[in-house]
C-alpha cells in the first residue's frame, strides 16, 4: 500500500495528543534495544505516558556486548529520571542468546533487513507485548522505528498484527526517526556520550562486521 511518508509518525503523534487531552498519563511498555535508540522516544513520550522500558534483547551476541548496551541504558535512565524529575522504569528479563540464535539459524545467510530480521523483530516484540498485556499496560511500542536501518512500515505491521493477539493493550504506532527524531537522538547521544554499537546485535551481524573490518 502506498502511504504518505509521515503516515506512521502521524498516527503516533495523533495518539499521543489523544492521551494528552485526557489529562492523565497512560501506561506504556516500550521495548528498548539500547540507550541511543531509546533516548529520543523517552523524551518525546514522557509528557503523555508513564513509561516502562523492556530490555529483552537475547539476540545480542556476545554476552559482553549485551551487558554493555544494558548497562548504558540503566545509566541513561538514571540520568534522565534525575534531570527531568521523571520515573521511567526499566525491566530486564532473562537473557538467553543460545536459544535465540537457534531460532535465527535457519536464516543465518539472509542479508540484514531480510527474513532473519523479520523473525527477530517479531520474536522480541511478541515477548515484550505479551508482558505488556499480562501486566495490564495501556500501550505497547518499540523504539526500533528510530533506526534508519529498520523499516518502520514492517515494524508497525508486526505491532498491528500483535495487537490482535494481545487485544487488551493498544499498539502505539511510531516512526521515531521522522520529523528530526533521529537528529535529536544523535544530539542526545553525543551530549551524554552514549555508547553506540557498530553492528546490529546477533552473531550473524557481528560476524559480518568482523569480516568488513578485515
Ligand atoms: S541483524 Fe539485527 S535485527 Fe537482524 S537478526 Fe540480527 S540482531 Fe536481529
How much of the polypeptide forms β-strand, as a percent range?
Answer: 5-15%
> If classified by CATH, what would the architecture be?
3-Layer(aba) Sandwich
- Total strands: the figure is 5
Please indicate the count of domains: 1
Structural class: alpha/beta
What is the CATH class designation? Alpha Beta
The CATH homologous superfamily is called HUPs
- How do the strands of the widest beta sheet line up side by side? 3-2-1-4-5
Tell me the series of helices and strands, N- to C-terminal: HEHEHEHHEHEHH
| Count of runs of 4 or more consecutive helical residues | 8
What is the CATH third-level topology name? Rossmann fold
Largest sheet: 5 strands, parallel
Cα-atom radius of gyration: 17 Å
Low-confidence stretches: none
Distance between the first and last residues' Cα = 41 Å
Any ligands, ions or cofactors bound here, and which? iron/sulfur cluster
Name the helicity range. 40-55%
Average pLDDT, all residues: 97
**Which overall shape is indicated by the principal axes computed on the Cα atoms?**
globular
Plain-language structure description:
- The chain is an alpha/beta fold.
- It has a single domain (24-213), classed as Rossmann fold, CATH 3.40.50.620.
- The protein has helices at 7-21, 35-45, 63-84, 97-104, 115-134, 152-165, 181-191, 203-213; strands at residues 26-31, 49-54, 89-91, 139-142, 170-171.
- Strands 3-2-1-4-5 form a 5-stranded parallel β-sheet.
- Helix 5 crosses helix 6.
- The protein is globular, with a radius of gyration of 17 Å.
- The termini are far apart.
- The mean pLDDT is 97.
- The chain binds iron/sulfur cluster.
- Iron/sulfur cluster (SF4) is lined by residues 59, 104, 112, 116-117, 120, 200-202, 204-205.
Amino acid at each position: 500500500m502506498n502511504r504518505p511518508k509521515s503516515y506512521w509518525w502521524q498516527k503516533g503523534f495523533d495518539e499521543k495528543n489523544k492521551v494528552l487531552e485526557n489529562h492523565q498519563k497512560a501506561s506504556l511498555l516500550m521495548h528498548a534495544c539500547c540507550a541511543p535508540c531509546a533516548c529520543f522516544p523517552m523524551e518525546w513520550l514522557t509528557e503523555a505516558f508513564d513509561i516502562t522500558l523492556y530490555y529483552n534483547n537475547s539476540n545480542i551476541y556476545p554476552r559482553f556486548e549485551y551487558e554493555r548496551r544494558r548497562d548504558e541504558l540503566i545509566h541513561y535512565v538514571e540520568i534522565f529520571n534525575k534531570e527531568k524529575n521523571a520515573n521511567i522504569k526499566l525491566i530486564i528479563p532473562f537473557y538467553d542468546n543460545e536459544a535465540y540464535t537457534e531460532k535465527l539459524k535457519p536464516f543465518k545467510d539472509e542479508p540484514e533487513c531480510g527474513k532473519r530480521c523479520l523473525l527477530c523483530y517479531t520474536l522480541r516484540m511478541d515477548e515484550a507485548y505479551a508482558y505488556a498485556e499480562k501486566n495490564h499496560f495501556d500501550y505497547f511500542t518499540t523504539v526500533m522505528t528510530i533506526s534508519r536501518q529498520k523499516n518502520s512500515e514492517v515494524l508497525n505491521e508486526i505491532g498491528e498484527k500483535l495487537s490482535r493477539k494481545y487485544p487488551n493493550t493498544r499498539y502505539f504506532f511510531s516512526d521515531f526517526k521522522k520529523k528530526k527524531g533521529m537528529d535529536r537522538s544523535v544530539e542526545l547521544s553525543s551530549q551524554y556520550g552514549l555508547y553506540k554499537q557498530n553492528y546490529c546485535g546477533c552473531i550473524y551481524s557481528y560476524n559480518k562486521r568482523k569480516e568488513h573490518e578485515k
